[in-house]
Give the backbone structure.
Amino acid sequence: EVKTPAAAAAAEVEADVETNANSKVSVPLTLKDMVKQSSEAMGEAKLQGITRQTIRVLLPRDPKSADLGNMFEEEVELEMQDILLAPPDESWQGGIMQLYRACAPTCKEILRNLGGDVGGVPPKLIEDRSVDDSGVDGVGLWMTQSNDPKDDISCFVQPLQETVSSIETISKQAGERLVVLMNPQWRSVDDALDSASREEGIFGSIASFLGGKGNSLKILEQAGFKEVYSIEGYVCKGGNVRLMKRFDTDWIVFAENDSETGFITLGEQATRPTYQDVEKMLDDKGVSLKYARDFGLAPKLE
């Protein structure tokens, strides 16, 4: 396809805008920073007409080894500076309900920050656990009640594929009001069953029946849901890595330095990087296995 000079110039401007947006993405080191980042992204997306949003965030966790994985109750003060931000993975020994007890207060902080105060009074927050049919699947619905009903927000915490019908109902009722999905329990990457469930016909229907998320995601896409803020994390070559994206940026990949005081940028990619992509970024940067760095067999990552 041959582009006109005007089209080429427009594409160049668009690329520059995205690059500038990428430069403002950084790994939050505290819960307060993450709440600020996520709520700012959500607010900016709403101003651009994105009122159906999905966010994936890290969760607050006690860094003391003796308490590693303990639940955070409602009364816990989340502004503690020694709280770590951890991915919602299998290292949480209490399972999905433990994750919910860390996710719910994080959701409240984000909604308070996003809703703002009116006369110094934050919006009222209401929890509805009736969306969790079993009571133990770690799903909840948090809603704000503002002075002006048009500013009310509904946030589904850790929704399941079985929650999609409730999401669809609330979304239709909400009109132009904000509806958010926080830390959905379906994976952000596809396995074979997920890929098959995206196909049309009987084969896709069977794959969806067996648990593939394709049909659920199709319903959410039709409702207008978009990824607005994502921060994910796992271990690669022995060190912590973080994958981040806003609605207006590429995916940015970061690696934690060996002093555990911050993160360095490894690379950027338009599509979500695979584990192999991240490993290659580390190799391209000359980053060795962490145990080799720890024992002085390779240069430190600083």
Notes: The first helix runs from residue 5 to 23. The chain has a mean pLDDT of 84. The longest strand covers residues 226-236.
